[in-house]
Design goal:
TIM Barrel, 2 domains, 8-stranded parallel β-barrel, two-stranded antiparallel sheet, globular, Glyco_hydro_53, GH
């Protein structure tokens, strides 16, 4: 009987030891001291569920407030995090007339993202205002520079902004070198249809600027119309042929309730091609749909996330909603994911676990 009791006690002791080891491996203390399961849900390397909220400081200054699904006023970053968002995307303009999206404004928003334990994607427009497929205007301060000086300006501006963030211990996980550069950037010098070589050299200048500040930050080249494989092959074949480097292919995708399924299917084919053709990782940097189509938008986002996650070798990195918090047609924009009372629509439920 004594031997049996010792045997039982030995089993219990061994089991207790195993439990203690598993607990020490499976849990960790956060900076604040709370115990949290490991890995953290928004740790580096996990899938990015993102939102571009670059308008937030301007909206707040205009008196706009944000509310959770229960109608309680809260900080936007908390509302988004409670909806599953773990990454914030922020655009950077060089010398914007309003001051919004300049370096200081970007830093203020990046600090809020860091405080919320969110990751950061920085989006350089290399302009004083919007850069997109229809306009890629040089900043006023760079307008008369020769091409050699223009490349130096791209590099130095990239370094300056990222160094400012790094001084506050904010290291963006991803950095876009240009925004929706379907026909290059910094027109006309960097217009791809005029000189793919020039465009490639500008991309390379940005790439080198990013890596000079932190080699771990991944460089994204971002093109609109993620369903258009011919466009993506033209851009990335051209960049590769002219010696430009990148880490991630970025896409925008703005379908409607009527065509999102077919657009997602085309986008998946394009994403797979980017992986096999260039070995690139792929991120959907912008999505959106009319706020009146919230149910369809939720289904669209869930589907495109599943398709992005399906890429071989975990090459699909994440999906970002563009300015979901814009409501009541803020600045005339009607593709947000908050209703007229300032609460998230069901579209944001797509990001929940």
């Amino acid at each position: 009987m004594n031997m049996f009791i010792k045997y039982i006690k030995g089993i219990k002791g061994f089991a207790l030891l195993v439990i203690m080891i598993l607990a020490s491996v499976g849990c960790k203390k956060t900076i604040k001291g709370e115990t949290q399961l490991y890995p953290e849900p928004d740790a580096v390397g996990t899938y990015a569920k993102g939102a571009d909220v670059s308008w937030v400081t301007e909206m707040e200054a205009a008196g706009r407030k944000f509310f959770n699904s229960a109608g309680e006023q809260q900080d936007l970053f908390k509302i988004l995090k409670d909806k599953g968002i773990n990454t914030i995307r922020l655009r950077v303009w060089v010398n914007p007339a309003s001051g919004y999206c300049n370096t200081a404004d970007v830093l203020a928003k990046a600090k809020r993202a860091k405080a919320a334990n969110m990751r950061v994607l920085i989006d350089f427009h290399y302009s004083d205002t919007w850069a997109d497929p229809g306009q890629q205007n040089k900043p006023a301060a760079w307008a008369n520079q020769d091409f050699t000086t223009l490349k130096a300006s791209v590099r130095s501006h990239t370094v300056a902004v990222l160094t400012t963030l790094k001084a506050e211990n904010i290291i963006p996980e991803w950095v876009q070198v240009g925004n929706e550069t379907n026909d290059g950037m910094l027109w006309n010098d960097g217009k791809a249809s005029v000189s793919m070589k020039n465009f490639a050299e500008l991309i390379q200048a940005g790439y080198e600027g990013v890596k000079a500040v932190d080699p771990a930050s991944k460089v994204v080249v971002h093109i609109a119309n993620g369903y258009d494989n011919a466009l993506f092959r033209w851009i990335f074949d051209g960049l590769k042929a002219n010696g430009a480097k990148w880490d991630v292919v970025g896409m925008s995708l703005y379908p409607t309730a009527a065509d999102w399924s077919s657009k997602n299917t085309q986008c998946l084919a394009n994403m797979n091609d980017m992986v096999t053709r260039y070995g690139s990782e792929v991120m959907i940097c912008e999505v959106g749909m009319p706020v009146t189509e919230a149910v369809a938008c939720r289904d669209f986002i869930k589907d495109i996330m599943a398709k992005n996650k399906s890429l071989a070798n975990n090459k699909g990195l994440g999906v970002f909603y563009w300015e979901p918090q814009s409501y009541n047609s803020w600045n005339g924009y009607k593709l947000g994911a908050f209703d007229d009372s300032g609460k998230p629509t069901v579209a944001m439920d797509a990001f929940l676990p």
